Amino acid sequence: MSTKISVCIPVFRSEKTLPECLESVAKQTFRDFEVVIVDDCSDGKDGKGRSAKKIAKEFSKLLKKERIRVEYIRHSSNMGLLEARRTLVEAATGDFILMLDSDDELFSDSLESLFGSAIKTDADITHGKARAFLTEEPTEAGEIRLQKIQEKTSRIEKEPLTGGQIRRKWLLENSHTSYLWGKLIKREIYASAFEKIPFVKATMAEDVLQYFFIAGLSKSYVPLDKEIYRYRADSGITSNRRIETEEDWERVAQAADIFTAIFAQIDEGEATVDSEEKSAIAQMCRNHLANNIVQMELVSENLKERAREILSEHWGENFVLAAEKQMGRQTKC
Asked: Which of 59, 99, 124, 238 is least surrounded by CB atoms within 10 angstroms?
């Protein structure tokens, strides 16, 4: 008999929160799962000075008595979150995939709730709600931001969807999120999606590219009106922290490469969309560029000139200028 669920955890400089993430997996009431960890050439350490490999090894010993498989894989170079997820899916053996980011956590009954719903409905995608939380004591502004994040991360459909409705409702109505975490997805669907996705080194918006194909290949989507995921809102690249290095800004600007890949697949006939859906993708693309331009405010002063160059390298100078004009702003370098 195959394992029911593969809990897939990508790691990159998130060792400080990885032990808490893994502890939440170890506490699951549902025990027919495996854990696959992909270390994307991370150089981080946790509070005890442990590497991702060391943390994974100790976690594996914890589950050894139950014969729960824990596989640790390390990339020889940093390939970005999209490719880390590809490696995770390729290594997984479960009937279903659950993506769990290494700075987030599960509730103790998350796997049980998701799997129970998936089996009952035979859904290709089972989508639960998330609860956003902060590691640090929030300021007044932080509380407001947390509330906005909570509203976004808990956005799921009210009713089940079938076939073309899944991608269409996501694209045209934004009625559920493209986040990969919080969803239990049949492994065969996820693997088929990656067969259509070219290599792209990207961390930002990588979920959009994956979910574009996952939603297009799925026959059924079922919402689960229950919180099954704990989303840490004050960590990671989207946490509104200062951007101090060219490497970190490069990850932000790589969102452009995601949309380049989507439109290339559409043009090559690998994906079929109607005019409304294509227009929605184009608007999503413009929104991400606008967000990148706003994020320039988080870039340190000594990096702004180079950051502006990187933005144009990924998005195209004319596209960036047009977006800045529409937004009524000019990036200061």
From this structure: 238
